[in-house]
Structures are given as C-alpha cells and as structure tokens.
C-alpha cells in the first residue's frame, strides 16, 4: 500500500492460504545528503513482531524476563501465554475494535468483536500410535477442547471475552535494574564548573 515492500501477486486474494509474518516497520528508506554532494542511504528495516519469546514471566524469579511471551512451568504443568493485542489483529481492546477488511475498506477498516474462540493442540515431531496425522500441522498429540473424530469444531471452543474499559488497570513496579542504576548514578561525580 505504501510501496516500500514488493507486493506478492497473490496478496490481493482473500484466504489465499499463504501465511505472512507480521512485521513492524522500524524505519522507512531514507537518503540523507551532505554538503560534499555525497549521501547516506538508510534502507527500509522491519522487525518480526510475531516471534514469541520464551522465558520466565514471574517477577519474583531470579530468571525473570519482563519481555516473556511464553512461560512454561513444567512442575505445575502450566503454559502461560501473553499474546500482544496486535498479533490478534486488535486495534483497540478497550472498545473491542479489531482490524476490518482492509482490501474492501482501506487501512482504517475496523469491526467490533465479541471475543475469541480458543483451542490448544500439542504435537509430536514424529507420529506414533497415539497421534493423529494432520496435513500442514503434523502429528497431533492432544486437543483442548476434545476433537470429535479428529475434527476440532469452532462451536466447541470456549469463547474468551473481556470487559471494555475507559482507563486501563495497571500495576506499576520497578524492574530489578532500577536499583542497580540508582546505585551507579549515586556514585557519579558531576563537574562543578
């Protein structure tokens, strides 16, 4: 739409079966001239926002990583996911506003959503007697909710809903690095003249 990246010939077709990574533009291409007649060129750069970061999301843990998206607690058999709203195509979660059909209505397209149907499946790298082979996914080991004859129906999935808000509820806390920085800055001697 902005002409910064080449358009694939199939991209204007809905449900074309091709998955594209979600990329965040870091900077547009830019040429900076100088007085000598030379120019510095800064190329288009982007970052894949869809890569989920594994780590420890427990703020009381020594291994805490505040950027954690996926935390696995093997002891209690818990997997915790923190999926950014953008990856769910939500423009404004407080108003339940999702990205609409941009092909039909342009970049400002939006729709209201009542929530998400959620399912979880696990797979094994190699199929065995306990797995179901599925094209494009591999050896599926388990479903939640249960699959009926190997089929996971949307109506069987629980609907995740959330309340809208005017002001987000926040819980502010200092990162552990704050105290290290505070200690370091306290030792800095500033010039007096």
Strand content: 25-35%
Kindly state the mean pLDDT as a whole number?
87
Distance between the termini: 55 Å
- Biggest sheet record: 3 strands, antiparallel
SSE topology string: EEEEEEEEHEEEEEEH
Structural class: mainly beta
Walkthrough of the structure:
- Helices cover 8% and strands 27% of the residues.
- With 193 residues, the protein is mainly beta.
- The protein has a domain at 116-166.
- Strands 7-8-9 form a three-stranded antiparallel beta sheet, with no helix packed on it. Strands 11-13-12 form a three-stranded antiparallel beta sheet, with no helix packed on it. A two-stranded antiparallel sheet has the order 1-4.
- It is extended, with a radius of gyration of 24 Å.
- The model has no long low-confidence stretch (mean pLDDT 87).
């Amino acid at each position: 739409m902005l002409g910064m990246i080449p358009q694939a010939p199939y991209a204007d077709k809905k449900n074309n079966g091709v998955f594209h990574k979600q990329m965040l533009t870091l900077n547009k291409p830019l040429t900076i001239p100088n007085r000598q007649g030379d120019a510095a060129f800064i190329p288009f750069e982007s970052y894949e926002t869809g890569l989920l970061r594994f780590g420890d999301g427990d703020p009381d843990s020594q291994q805490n990583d505040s950027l954690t998206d996926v935390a696995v607690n093997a002891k209690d058999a818990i997997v915790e996911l923190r999926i950014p709203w953008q990856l769910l195509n939500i423009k404004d979660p407080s108003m339940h506003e999702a990205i609409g059909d941009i092909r039909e209505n342009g970049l400002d397209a939006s729709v209201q959503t009542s929530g998400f149907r959620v399912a979880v499946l696990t797979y094994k790298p190699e199929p065995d007697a306990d797995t179901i082979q599925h094209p494009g996914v591999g050896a599926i080991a388990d479903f939640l909710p249960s699959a009926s004859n190997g089929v996971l129906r949307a109506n069987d999935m629980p609907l995740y809903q959330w309340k809208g808000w005017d002001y987000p509820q926040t819980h502010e806390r200092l990162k552990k690095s704050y105290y290290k920085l505070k200690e370091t800055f306290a030792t800095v001697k500033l010039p007096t003249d």
